[in-house]
């Protein structure tokens, strides 16, 4: 599988398996195991998903050597401080049943991000984390973190889909030496994305599904992308995107779908910040 090289030399499989909203432990464990057996080598979870234990069991029972896998987890807002990272990261490792993770992200740009980042720098230096990054940070927030600390974020995981294309932000982050990872590439099915006439037409040209077209569109921008499904047949289908290329005409057509706004919520909305500050996970 194609990989993206981060600014510290670590390589990330360009297509990852997401586990957001997989809260049923048995379903999550089976989905992760099925995904790895289907060919995924990049697994993404988070403290706030409340499924790290199940993800760990899926990894352990997959039959694939740990060294072949790229595992990501994320620090939740209540743990975003120096002490919070130091304590909660070890609990994440314990739940995952791992000695290290390949990528650790600050899940949201709130609370003491500078203190948390210093802890992550230390853990990376100790070899417990191969790469460190952020999630849902604006370009300004990511650059601020980079300029006033020793380590530039290696990746920023942000919402990217045909309705929220973030073209200018992608260019700016790449210019700063930060890789980009896309969450919600299918916009969780919003706006009838899977029957969108433009995407459907492009898919028909190549004998591909709308989902495959979207994933191909993302990786052709040198962006890591996360796809989620609990159905093995969909897992295999989402992996089958390396045998075609989109034309300039295709990309121009997809560009017309851009609304330029989140399909979920604004990270600048004070109400959302207060909601996240009040969401206690005890993890």
Brief sketch in words of this structure:
The protein is α/β, with parallel strands linked by helices. It contains eleven helices and ten strands.
Keywords:
283 residues; alpha/beta; TIM Barrel; eight-stranded parallel beta barrel; two-stranded antiparallel ribbon; 11 helices; 40% helix; globular
Describe the model.
This protein has an 8-stranded parallel beta barrel with strand order 3-4-5-6-7-8-9-10, surrounded by 6 helices. Helix 1 (25-38) runs parallel beside helix 9 (232-239). It has 11 helices and 10 strands. The chain has helices at residues 25-38, 52-60, 82-96, 113-125, 139-147, 167-175, 197-206, 210-219, 232-239, 248-255, 270-278, and strands at residues 3-5, 11-13, 15-18, 42-44, 70-75, 101-106, 129-135, 155-159, 179-183, 224-227. The protein has one domain: Alpha-Beta Barrel (TIM Barrel), CATH 3.20.20. With 283 residues, it is α/β, with parallel strands linked by helices. The model has no long low-confidence stretch (mean pLDDT 97). It is globular, with a radius of gyration of 18 Å. Helix 5 (139-147) links the parallel strand 7 and strand 8 (155-159).
List the helices and strands and how they pair.
Blueprint: E1 3-5, E2 11-13, E3 15-18, H1 25-38, E4 42-44, H2 52-60, E5 70-75, H3 82-96, E6 101-106, H4 113-125, E7 129-135, H5 139-147, E8 155-159, H6 167-175, E9 179-183, H7 197-206, H8 210-219, E10 224-227, H9 232-239, H10 248-255, H11 270-278
Parallel strand pairs: 3-4, 3-10, 4-5, 5-6, 6-7, 7-8, 8-9, 9-10
Antiparallel strand pairs: 1-2
Helix pairs in contact: 1-2, 1-9, 2-3, 3-4, 7-8
């Amino acid at each position: 599988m194609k990989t993206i090289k981060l600014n510290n030399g670590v390589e990330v499989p360009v297509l990852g398996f997401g586990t957001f909203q997989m809260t049923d432990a048995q379903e999550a464990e089976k989905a992760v195991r099925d995904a790895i057996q289907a060919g995924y080598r990049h697994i993404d979870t988070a403290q706030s998903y409340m499924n790290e234990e199940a993800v760990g069991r899926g990894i352990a029972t997959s039959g694939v050597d740990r060294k072949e896998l790229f595992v990501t987890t994320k620090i939740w807002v209540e743990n975003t401080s120096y002490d919070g990272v130091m304590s909660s990261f070890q609990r994440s490792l314990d739940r995952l049943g791992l000695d290290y993770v390949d990528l650790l992200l600050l899940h949201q740009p709130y609370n003491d991000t500078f203190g948390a980042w210093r802890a992550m720098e230390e853990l990376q230096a100790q070899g417990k984390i191969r790469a460190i990054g952020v999630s849902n940070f604006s370009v300004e927030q990511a650059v601020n973190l980079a300029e006033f600390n020793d380590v530039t974020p290696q990746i920023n995981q942000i919402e990217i889909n045909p309705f929220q294309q973030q073209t200018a932000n992608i260019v700016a982050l790449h210019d700063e030496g930060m890789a980009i990872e896309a969450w919600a590439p299918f916009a969780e099915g919003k706006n009838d994305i899977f029957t969108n006439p433009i995407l459907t037409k492009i898919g028909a040209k190549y004998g591909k599904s709308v989902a495959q077209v979207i994933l191909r569109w993302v990786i052709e921008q040198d962006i890591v992308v996360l796809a989620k499904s609990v159905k093995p047949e969909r897992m295999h289908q989402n992996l089958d995107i390396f045998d075609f290329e989109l034309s300039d005409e295709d990309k121009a057509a997809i560009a017309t779908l851009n609304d330029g706004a989140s399909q979920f919520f604004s990270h600048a909305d004070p109400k959302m910040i207060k909601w996240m500050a009040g969401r206690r996970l005890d993890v």
